[in-house]
Specification:
This protein has 206 residues and is mainly α. The chain has a single domain, classed as Rhomboid-like (Rhomboid-like fold), CATH 1.20.1540. It has 8 helices and no strands. It has helices at residues 4-12, 28-31, 37-40, 48-67, 71-96, 108-119, 135-154, 167-188. α4 packs parallel to α6 (108-119) and α5 (71-96) packs antiparallel against α8. The longest helix has 26 residues, at 71-96. The two termini are 35 Å apart.
């Protein structure tokens, strides 16, 4: 997932319009001019800094979600989860800004979905989810959303270069991930050993 982002951006830079024809514009959700942008906007980014930020974040938060879904069936399930979070993030942004013609690009909404899901899984050796009311979920979630809103309202973020930060899309993606991981975990029924660690964490003897 993380490795695909720089590869896709490198391919994007070779497109005539630098790939921004694949962006999602919220107003198109209502006039029907560019529905595919809901999906294709996740494949393009604003610049290398934007790519790096999303790739590193995906690398950090994808692992616990991926462990929930083992095997070939799990690969399909993980991709479906990732895409669903990205789609809901874009739709949420369009609901907040229904007349906007600004180009929305990047996988940030989907990555924030991984964050929301991972916070309900981290530290759970059984693979079971933390409750949405558990303070060990709510406290970091509130901190992440506060930083997200602050960055969006101030308008400063690495790679933004004066562009508007779609913090609302990030928030919708995060909420989508935190909620969707529930039914996903029911479907995949994680094996406890996939989340377990051996009691002795010393280096193996040679």
């Amino acid at each position: 997932m993380s490795a695909s982002m720089p590869v896709l951006y490198w391919l994007q830079t070779g497109l005539p319009d630098n790939g921004f024809g694949l962006a999602f514009r919220p107003s198109s959700l209502w006039d029907g001019q560019w529905w595919p942008g809901l999906l294709t906007s996740m494949l393009v980014h604003g610049n290398w800094a934007h790519v790096a930020m999303n790739a590193v974040s995906a690398l950090a938060f994808a692992a616990p979600v991926a462990r929930l879904m083992p095997g070939a069936r799990g690969v399909v399930g993980f991709l479906a989860f990732y895409i669903a979070c990205g789609l809901l993030a874009a739709v949420g942004f369009a609901l907040v800004h229904p007349t906007s013609n600004d180009a929305l690009v990047g996988a940030s909404g989907a990555v924030f979905g991984l964050m929301g899901a991972a916070l309900r899984l981290l530290g759970r050796r059984s693979g079971r989810l933390r409750s949405l009311t558990d303070k060990r979920f709510l406290t970091p979630a509130a901190a992440i959303m506060a930083v997200n809103a602050g960055i969006g309202l101030i308008g400063f973020a690495p790679g933004a270069e004066g562009a508007r930060v779609a913090w609302e899309a990030h928030a919708f993606g995060f909420i989508a991930g935190a909620l969707l991981i529930g039914p996903w975990s029911t479907v995949f029924k994680p094996r406890p050993e996939a989340f377990d660690s051996p009691p002795d964490l010393r280096d193996p003897e040679v």
